[in-house]
Amino acid sequence: MKNHVFHSFLALVVLVLMFSGCGGVWIIPSVERVRNADIQFDAAEAFLIKADKDKEEEKRREQIEQKKILYDEALNAYRAIVKAEPDGKYVQRSLWQISEIYKRRYDWDKVIESYDAILAIAPMSYYGDRAKNSVTDMRKYRGLIEEAQRKYQAHSALYVQNNARESYDIAAQALYDVAESYEELGDYPEAISYYQRMVDEFPKHEKAPVALSRIGHIHFYRFYDYKTGRPTFYKVIEMYSDSYEATQAIRLLKDTDRTLMEIAQCEADIERYRSMKAIENEKSSRKTVPNERYSERRYVDIVAQCFQFIARRWEDLRNYPSAIVACRSLVNERPDNKSAVDDARYQIGRLYQLNGQLDQAIEAYQELNDKSPESPWRAEGIFQQAVCYRGVREFAKAYHGYKAYMNIGRDVEYYQEAEQIIRQLEMN
Q1: At a CB cut-off of 8 Å and minimum separation 6, what does 142 contact?
Q2: DSSP 8-state secondary structure symbol assigned to residue 296
Q3: Which residues pair with 274 in a beta bridge?
Q4: Is 318 helix (H, G, I), strand (E, B) or coil?
Q5: Strand pairing partners for 294?
Q6: Span 215-256, pLDDT tens digits
């Protein structure tokens, strides 16, 4: 018994030495710090503004402020990484994420500042290329906006004078082009403003129903604001009932409403199965032991299925951040359901990859490989991780990844593709 206590104490001392500095301050490894920052960023992205902007103004303001606070937490976490390790492995990724947060706030000076910081560190890197391309795109679309605005002013004035259809069409298209360029820049409020202006000034133009639909799509697929987007699609149906866009809007509203209702039902089921102890602990910010989270053991598998279903439905809506959060909740809440957890770990990597967050996808696939080496998703995860490594221009790691995939056996799905890529990499 004494030996057991001694060895337990010794293990604790080793942990303290590993994770604490000379002053007794707990040191979190860099990979954990950036992962925590990513989790905070995902939480901000997935936070839904559900209150109606016309009927629930105060509640909506509160929700907008809550979302801002979540972004602030992520922003501070990324800044801390940059400050603590300005030459570290995760500084470029953190700077890029900082630029993404400022893009959500349309603070373009800060976005450029973040790009400049990346370019100062590593202009030829993956993130350096992304920063350069983004700066080039910003210049390109701002130039197109100025050109289209001049065209609109000239031809709208001509239309007032001569009432010619040609002037009407050119002016209308110019306004549409301005809106489209703002959308490409990611300046969605300006894009919405110009799309709406195009509809108001040129309601009979063939692009008017398209412009109105674009407003709805921005709300649905960029803001994940379904309450605000829905009335816009109703306008498309009402104003342009015979158009292709109206047909699409009817189908989209029906599918979206059904999907959101199914998500809400699953979320309600999860809450219904939660134990009173878990609910009380959540209110007091105390942790709950996994096997105490739900009122009965038989609900465990049902809850896992609910999280899986929620993730799939958010993916159907192209709301990848909410799908990732649902999968991560499954991993955190149901560590004893191995099959479901293995699936969720793979899905997190795949969803990050779909969302263009390749570094995060690489880490998720690595976690799948490390923690679930016998998972049926392991081979797919190894292959997709190699794809992501190639995407971020880490070709040596990509090469080893494809090799590891081929070593699993010739019957794997992408064996020939991996073999061809390896030959290309060896030639290069």
Answers
A1: 181, 185
A2: S
A3: 294
A4: coil
A5: 274
A6: 999 999 999 999 999 999 999 999 999 999 999 999 999 999
Contact 318, 229 (CB under 8 A): no
What letter represents residue 192's amino acid? I
Torsional sign, CA 237, 238, 243, 245? negative
pLDDT digits over 50-67, tens only?
Answer: 998 888 999 999 999 999
Q: Please tell me the distance from the alpha carbon of residue 202 to that of residue 171, in angstroms, as a whole number.
A: 9
379 CA to centre of own chain = 25
List beta partners, residue 26. Answer: 20
Q: Are 308 and 340 in contact (CB under 8 A)?
A: yes
Give CA angle at 357 (356, 358), nearest 5°: 95
How far is the C-alpha of 78 from the C-alpha of 42, rounded, in Å? 13
- Cα separation values, 346 from 48, 364, 387, Å: 24, 7, 14
CB atoms within 10 A of CB 109: 7
Can you tell me the distance from the alpha carbon of 261 to that of 239, in angstroms, rounded to the nearest whole number?
A: 27
Q: 395-407 and 378-391 helices cross at what angle (nearest 10)?
A: 160
Residues in Cβ contact with 26 at an 8 Å cutoff, skipping those fewer than 6 apart = 19, 20
